Every structure is written in C-alpha cells, then in structure tokens.
Amino acid sequence: MSTTAVLILPFFIASLIVAGPLISAAPSHAEVVGAFKSSPLQSQKVELLAQSHPILKESSVLADSANKSQKVVKIFATAYSSSVDETDDTPFITASGSHVRNGVIAANFLPFGSKVKLPAVFGDKVFTVEDRLKDGYNDRVDIWFPSKGEALKFGVQVIEMEIFD
Q: What would the pLDDT profile of 1-38 be if each residue is shown by its tens digit?
C-alpha cells in the first residue's frame, strides 16, 4: 500500500462512520421523484417567447389571476420618437401596421400584442408591443415618446419589466 493510501485511509473510514447514518436516512430516489411530481411547479405552463434571450435577470412570478404578470425580467429600456432618423420612412406607422401612440413599445423578442408593465418607471401603465427594433437589438425594449427631447431625456435604463399573457 502506498504512503498516500495509508494517510487517506483513516479519513475515509471516519467519513463512512459519520456519513453512514445520514446516507441511510436520506430519502430514496423514488421518494424524491414522487415529491417532485406532486410539486405545484410541475403544473405551470412554459412558453418560449423568443429564440434570442435578452434577459439579464429572470425571476418567476406565479399567476393566479389575469392581472398578475407571468414573468418578470430585468432588461435594457431605450426610447424613440417618430422621426425618420430614428425609424424608417413611415415614422408614424409601427411594424404591426398601427399608428404610434402613448403606450406603444418595440421589442424583437415578444409577439405583437404582448402586454407589459414597467413599474419602476411608469407604475401600473400597460404597454403593448406593436413595433420592432433593428435586427440585432434583441436585448431591449424601445418605448415610444411623442418628442425626440422626451426620448433623449429617458435615455437608456436597466429596468424590470412584467410580461403578461
């Protein structure tokens, strides 16, 4: 037997003496699987929102009514206005075909019509995804403002966004 084995052997035997009762008292694999299957988290519906994951931080929020969010994400928020230098040659028409107005946001990772809230900045105001950003901007939402000055004042912020069904 090597010197290393002789030095390690007493520690191994001691660990078996200490951990042995803990191992035998541990729940079996079947018990763990059974407890997991009966967990309320198993009944939750999971839906893919996008192929690109712009989420910096994500935490689940259980929804027990239509007024509660299904997901809360921390994301970049920018702002834009209806000017040709910030949009295309139809600055008052969104990518979904509607007219820009208060409460419109652009997001590449959510379907048109998705409802979101930005509570830290706008409280309970509900925004609707009706526009898109340039390709490659999958890590943010862009909030429409009536003037370029208001959009510039908003700047770029990292905020929590509540996403609804």
A: 565 555 565 555 655 555 555 444 544 444 544 444 44
Domain total of the chain: 2
Q: Are 109 and 54 in contact (CB under 8 A)?
A: yes
Rounded to whole angstroms, the Cα distance separating 54 from 75 reads 7
Same domain? 131 vs 157? yes
Identify the H or E element spanning 106.
strand 104-107
* Same domain, yes or no: 124 and 160: yes
Q: What is the tens place of the pLDDT at every residue in 98-124?
A: 999 999 999 999 999 999 999 999 999
Which domain covers residue 23, as residue numbers? Answer: 3-43
Q: Are residues 37 and 68 in the same domain?
A: no
End-to-end CA distance of the chain: 66
Q: Are strands 104-107 and 157-164 parallel, antiparallel or unpaired?
A: unpaired
Percent of the chain having pLDDT more than 90? Answer: 44
User: Three-state secondary structure along 96-151?
Assistant: CCCECCCCEEEECCCCCCCEEECHHHHCCCEEEEEECCCCCCCCEEEEECCCHHHH
